[in-house]
Amino acid sequence: MVYVVSKTGKNLMPTNRHGKVRRWLKAGKAKVICKNPFTIQLLFDTTEYIQAVKVGIDIGNTVGYAIVANNSVIDKGEIALRTDASKLLTQRKTYRRSRRNRKTRYRKARFLNRKNKKKGWLPPSILSKFTNIVFWIDRLTKYLPDYQITVETVKFDTQKMENPSIKGKEYQQGSLYGYENVKEFLLFRQKGKCQLCKKGYDGNGWHIHHIKERSKGGTDSPSNLALLHKHCHTELHKKGLKIRKPSKKRLTECAHYNALRLRLMDILKEKHNNIEFTYGYITKINRNNLNLPKTHYNDAIAITGVEEIKKNIADITVIKQVRKKKRSLHEAAARKGKRIPNRTAKRNKKNTKEIIVNGIKYSLWDKVKIGNKKGYISGFTGNSCYIRDIDGKHLVIDDKKYKQVSVKNIKHIKRNNNWIMERKAA
Question: Would you tell me the crossing angle of helices 296-303 and 280-289 to the nearest 10 degrees?
Fold first, then answer.
């Protein structure tokens, strides 16, 4: 889909007539004013007739969106947000602790900075999702005329998701209810057996083991604890053995969107006057009435409230957030002596991974062509690189087993920032 702006700067109806757009650009009757999303401005007078446009947004780690006009779906797609913020912050914390035990010039620990958090503060992992959702809603509607946004907002009942029949005072009776302490609960859960060797009590007492170490972000929640024999616990740490975490539904995403739901509603109301909110059960009813399979973009179509689909485009736009830069400051390996200036220079430009071959600069996640395939640079090794498609699959030359591809064998197409985008079949 191509967004269109009139000669006077008024937003017109988007178009899927790409051939006509190419002819306008070639004849000098239009010019490109934005590449992402692709938008042109007409250089000739035209009628400014517009139709009402409905935009549906399905919130989640993968955001679904759909743009509907006159009962026709003119654009739809999915936006995959990054979910590694918490993991990277934990890694940074580990590196900082390590540095403080070495003789370095880095700052001292700051333990009292939490009390200065402003009202409405959000953790970085949630704030990242919040800002990117708002960013893409603004971008998708920037060049749309007379639009109405509908956003699905959900308040998740995580206890009901685990126990659908829960009610009343049962909400106050968590997993430890009725047990004298955590150890007694673990004994019941493991049926009195060691989590590692699966044998019963050996008379030497029980040890409680943290499956994910507290130094790496592990908690004291029963889901992160296991009961072991004393000798099993010693062997586990000595030999680096692993034990499985008890199976449990992952409710992290639900907790995140419970935390940002109200903030998201407030900021969107400030930015857009023509916005309304709906709920998941309404989306499900609408999607079933339209006979659409369960996908994020089909949910977004149902969210718009359209009762009949006259035309539905076959392709979707897939947008994915990627990590473009790495900060050398937080590397575990200490650099000393003459290498300190190099480290400082890398830190100042945030260590963007790139190489230059024949005057062409290749950076992480740039779009390139390899043979008759198109993909994105996901890493470098010397003058070679790794290339993946938008789904994460490695691309190689002539089905060779080696994933590295020489930069000489690829053609640079487009430089990307922290977002990669591609049209593909639904």
Answer: 90
State the burial class of residue 298 (Cβ atoms within 10 Å of its Cβ: 0-12, 13-18, 19+). Answer: buried
Q: How far apart are the first and last CA of the chain?
A: 15
CATH numbers and ranges of domains, the chain: 3-42 (no CATH), 53-83+122-158+252-321 (3.30.420.40), 175-239 (3.40.1800), 353-425 (2.30.30)
Dig out the tokens for 125 from the structure. 């992992």
* CA gap 113, 407 in Å, rounded: 46
Q: What sign does the dihedral 245-251-255-260 (CA atoms) show? A: positive
How would you classify the pairing of strands 419-425 and 72-80?
unpaired
SS3 call for 198: coil
pLDDT digits (tens, 9 = 90+) for 231-259: 888 888 888 777 776 655 555 666 777 77
Query: Which tens digits make up the pLDDT trace of 371-422?
Result: 888 999 988 887 888 999 999 888 887 766 668 888 888 899 988 888 999 9
Q: Is the pLDDT of residue 342 over 80?
A: no
Instruction: Supply the pLDDT for residue 123.
Output: 80
pTM: 0.73
Are residues 182 and 224 in contact, defined by beta-carbon separation less than 8 angstroms?
Answer: no
